[in-house]
Design goal:
It is a single chain. α4 packs across α11 and α6 packs across α9. The strands form three sheets. This protein has a five-stranded mixed sheet, sandwiched between helices. The chain starts with a strand and ends in a 19-residue tail after the last helix. It has eleven helices and twelve strands. It is 41% helix and 20% strand. The protein has two domains: 150 residues, ATPase, nucleotide binding domain (Nucleotidyltransferase, domain 5), CATH 3.30.420.40; 170 residues, Nucleotidyltransferase, domain 5 (2-Layer Sandwich). The longest helix has 29 residues.
């Protein structure tokens, strides 16, 4: 079974080819340099970059998979794309590209929930889907746009337990990095600074939100802003005032400690409440070393992360979702069935 997949939900343009459970290619173009001067993703610029780069990325993916263009009937058994959630303009570029590829190759078209992709990315090992997930399990999807807990009972059988009510964890990392004058994307920048920290930093709150499985990180971001205002003055950002490197590192570590402790504690509490021993963590923030270490220190749980190469957005995970759906014996042709983005199930 050969699958072509596209991923264009935010600021990575990606195309991948899978043959069976082996990943033949996974071409990715990152827009980080384009958005860095704005300290965040600009949707209109992202859409235009996807439109410009997707033919190049498709050619690269096909070439690496030894399936040179042009596409022709019989090349693929299915064409998959991220149907959401994501930026509307960016999603449309990927969908149109997938529709064209499906038409040219005569293959069925499969719309995939992007967040399911982050879960199934945990199955990849050295370019193969060699680590099948064991269900049931508790899933934490933690990225720039999403922080969600799912009860995963099988492939395509997911129940949302909690979501962020405001900022996602990755978004909070980006915004704190911006306040501190660190480059975008904020997650790697904050992690790098935190690793340099010596001594005790400020004591930021842990937004545990007792009684719910939802998340909220806007207050933590605001606490960092208030701290900076108390140290530098209320208009510190406009004036370009920034902390000294040593103090900045301590602030980064304190913020990261708070975010990581919140994610780990709420995830483990949710797993215990459902009697689950297995946890899978996916999404861009799952590449954070402190988060991985904290989950690794949990007792009584088997915790699975995706390899770091598959933490950020990529088409390989979309292809794998399509493969699992085809193996289950069916699919929704997204040209005929309007996808329901409210819930992650098939």
């Amino acid at each position: 079974m050969k699958i072509l997949a596209f991923e264009t939900t935010c600021d990575e343009t990606s195309a991948a080819v899978m043959k069976g459970r082996s990943l033949r290619s996974n071409a990715v173009y990152s827009q980080i340099k384009l958005h860095r001067k704005y300290s965040g993703v600009v949707p209109e610029l992202a859409s235009r970059a996807h439109l410009e780069k997707i033919p190049v990325i498709l050619r690269s993916a096909l070439k690496r998979a030894q399936n040179l263009p042009p596409l022709k009937p019989g090349d693929f058994d299915a064409v998959a794309f991220s149907r959401g959630p994501g930026l509307p303009g960016a999603l449309m570029v990927g969908r149109v590209a997938a529709e064209a590829a499906a038409e040219l190759s005569g293959a069925p078209l499969i719309g995939v929930n992007h967040l399911e992709g982050h879960l199934l990315a945990c199955e990849f090992k050295n370019g193969r889907a060699a680590r099948p997930l064991e269900f049931p399990l508790l899933t934490l999807i933690v990225s720039g746009g999403h922080t969600e807990l799912w009860h995963a009972r099988g492939y395509g059988d997911y129940r949302v337990l909690g979501r962020t009510r405001d900022d996602a964890a990755g978004e909070a990392f980006d915004k704190v990095a911006k306040l501190l004058g660190l480059p975008y994307p904020g997650g790697p920048s904050v992690e790098k600074e935190a690793a340099r920290a010596r001594g005790k930093g400020p004591d930021f709150p842990r937004p545990f939100m007792p009684g719910t499985m939802d998340f909220s990180f806007s207050g933590l971001k605001t606490a960092v802003s208030y701290y900076l205002a108390s140290e530098l003055g209320g208009d510190f950002y406009k004036k370009g005032l920034r902390l000294q490197p040593a103090q900045r590192a301590r602030v980064c570590k304190s913020f990261q400690d708070s975010a990581v402790e919140t994610l780990v504690k709420k995830t483990s509490q949710a797993a215990r409440s459902l009697g689950l021993k297995r946890i899978a963590v996916g999404g861009g923030v799952s590449a954070n070393g402190a988060l991985r270490a904290a989950f690794g220190a949990l007792e009584g749980f088997e915790v699975r992360f995706s390899e770091k190469a598959y933490c950020s957005d990529n088409a390989a995970m979309i292809a794998l979702c399509a493969l699992r759906r085809l193996e289950a014996g069916g699919y929704k042709n997204s040209l005929k069935v309007a996808p329901d983005l409210a819930e992650p199930g098939w």
